[in-house]
Specification:
about 170 residues, alpha/beta, four-stranded parallel β-sheet, two-stranded parallel ribbon, 6 helices, 6 strands, about 15% strand
Length: about 170
């Protein structure tokens, strides 16, 4: 999907960080997620860490137990939907509006077991909180993961968390 410089969405969602998203941001800091990492979690919104360039996905309890006990697991590499977003966001349109619009276009099962990769000048301009918001929501259209390339925004975030040496370029 390519969103042009003129958005005609009628979304009125607030981009204020909600309590549940705050929990994932805290975990992104505490778990020390870094670009290129692989993470599994028992929560479907584990995919939030894709904002940092990590492949992160939610799994069922049996799969999580296997990961914990054996330190490994089986994954099918998901097909990818490249989502290109360009143009300046109109006043009052935020990252949550973007992802809800994308979910609306794809449908609740339109990206089942797919990875959504976010690209474009609009995405490049998003701050880390906005990227975390979008990655957090990809599961709502069935996606396995939501991924962002790493860039200067990722580098700054890692530096603020005391992990500047963990930056890795991922396109």
């Amino acid at each position: 999907f390519v969103l042009g410089s003129r958005c005609n969405m009628s979304c009125r969602f607030c981009m204020s960080v909600e309590k549940d998203l705050e929990d994932y941001v805290v975990l992104a800091n505490l778990l020390r997620m870094n670009p290129g990492d692989l993470a599994v979690g028992a929560d479907s919104h584990t995919c939030t860490y894709g904002a940092l360039g990590a492949f992160a996905t939610g799994m069922g309890s049996t799969d999580i137990a296997i990961s914990v006990v054996l330190g490994k697991n089986w994954f099918r590499v998901p097909e990818t939907f490249r989502i290109e977003i360009n143009g300046k966001l109109p006043k009052g349109v935020f990252a949550k509006d973007l992802i809800l619009h994308i979910i609306g276009k794809l449908g609740v099962d339109g990206a089942t077991y797919k990875a959504l990769e976010f690209h474009g000048e609009t995405v490049d301009a998003l701050d880390m909180d906005s990227r975390l918001t979008m990655a957090n929501m990809v599961v709502e259209c069935g996606a396995k993961a939501g991924l962002f390339k790493t860039d200067e925004i990722t580098r700054r975030f890692l530096a603020e968390m005391g992990r500047a040496d963990k930056f890795r370029e991922i396109k």
